Structures are given as structure tokens and as C-alpha cells.
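Annotators were shown the component list below and the corresponding predicted structure, then asked to write short factual statements about the assembly.
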Amino acid sequence: MTREEFIAHVEREQEALRAFLLALCCGKKDDADDLAQDALVKAYLSAAGYQDQGRFRSWLFKIAHNTFLNHKASMRTMANIEDARTEFSSFSADSSFQHQDLYLALSTLPPKERSAITLFYLTGYSIKEIATITETSEDAVKKQLSRGRDKLREQLTIEN
Amino acid sequence: MEKDKALEELFQAQKPHFDDSADFMAALTKRLDAVEFVKQHQEATIRRYKMAMVAAFVVGIITGGVTVAFMLSTPVDEPLFDFDSQIEGLRWLSENSRLIAATILSLLMMVGIFSIFTNIQDIQRMRVKLKV
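Structure shown to annotators:
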């Protein structure tokens, strides 16, 4: 893949990628954009090995997901809800979001559950596709979705 | 697995829209330029390493060949070098000059081979870095 082809693909997919990472970063736009840039640079460096089968988006999401998990591992943060609430009061989230409840609820989920939930509900991927992107089994994805959904429901009920 | 409609609607309703896509792409292009620069620099370094390796190999072959040829051309029963001294240590050196020269030559060859292997490993590491 040439640089021009790569940039053309990215121009089409960057909004979806940023939305995905914004949800994973619980509304922290600067962090999400930094991760998106890192993921895109990694994708560019490994673009030579990419076989174009119309799956550029899921390939990109796979790299972004791994970049997010590596970032979380390096940060070693175990933020609880109270920490998240404090953070939310101090950063400027994406202005298009009227309510921060969803981000707040997402921040209580472990990274893998957050990824599965975001890919399922925000991006609309199937369980099989999520399993490919996150490199886990379909059963594991189902468990993550089930647990994540229960936690989100509980959290959103508390907040409302 | 069925989707939770309420959750899906919540996610879809809160889907962000980015009005800074041009800035994002400009920042990405800048980063890709930097990546290209580093890549070119690393490729140039690999080329230099390869040239140095080839030069070291050629020099090693020539000097090794010349030294071996010199050793073989001199009479076997005569020392390679003679200090013309009665001091015990220097006399011992002269008597064992062939053995000493052969040992030094072997050591140099060993160091040369070792450095070639190190260079190859460095080049492979750089290539991996370039791909990652």
C-alpha cells in the first residue's frame, strides 16, 4: 500500500476510529486523538503487510485496540468511579456530547469489556468480528458483553 | 446475542462528530513525514553498516592472505623475527615466533568474524524496528 492509498483510507475511516478511541478513553479527546495518531503511525509502518480485502477498518481497529491496551498497561491506572468523577470535572470533553453519563459509566468497565461494548454498540460489529479484532474467542466476547452490559445498566441507573 | 436497544440508542445518540478532521489529518501527515525521515536515516545506517562489513571482510582476507603467504614463504626452521638478544624472554619470543604469529592471526580472525556477526545482528534488529 502506498502512502497516498494509506492516507486516502485513513481519511475515510478516521472519524470512526476517533469515535471508538474516544469511547475507550471515556471522553478524553486529547488522549483519544494521541492514541489514534499512534495507532495510525503503527498501521502505516505495517501497511506493507496489509492485504486489501476491504477490511481496512477492522484492521485499523485491531491496531487501535492493542494500542489502547498497551497504553492502559503502561499507565497502570485502576481508576475507580470517584476518580473518574474528579477527572470529568477537570477535562474538557468533546463538545458534541451533551451527557457524560455514558462515558462515566464506561470508565467503570475494565478495558477489554469497554472495547467489546464499544465495538458492539457504537461501531456495530458482530461478535465474530469483535473476536477477530480483540484476538479472543467468541465465548469470551459474549461474556465480556454480558458483564459489561449489566455493569453499564447498573451504573446508568445509579447515575439517573 | 441480542442487542440491548436502550444501550444501542444511547450509544448512537451520543456518537461524536469531529469538526477538526483537517487538523487531525495535518498532524498525522506531519508524523508520517517524521517517520519517513527516521526510516530513511535507519536505512542509510544499514547501508553504511553493510559497506563497513564488506570493507572489513576484504581487508581481513587480503591481510590474512598476505600474512599466511609470508609465513609460508619463510624457512620453517628459522624464526619469523629475531631480536638478536641474549635476554631470556626475548629469546623465547624469537624461538616461538611462528606459534605467536599464528595465535595472533587466529585471534584477529576470531575478532573479525565476531564483529561481522554483531553487525549482522544489528542490521536485523534495525530491520525489525523499521517494520514495527
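Statements collected:
1. Chain A touches chain B through 39 residues (CB under 8 Å).
2. The two ends of chain A are 48 Å apart (CA to CA).
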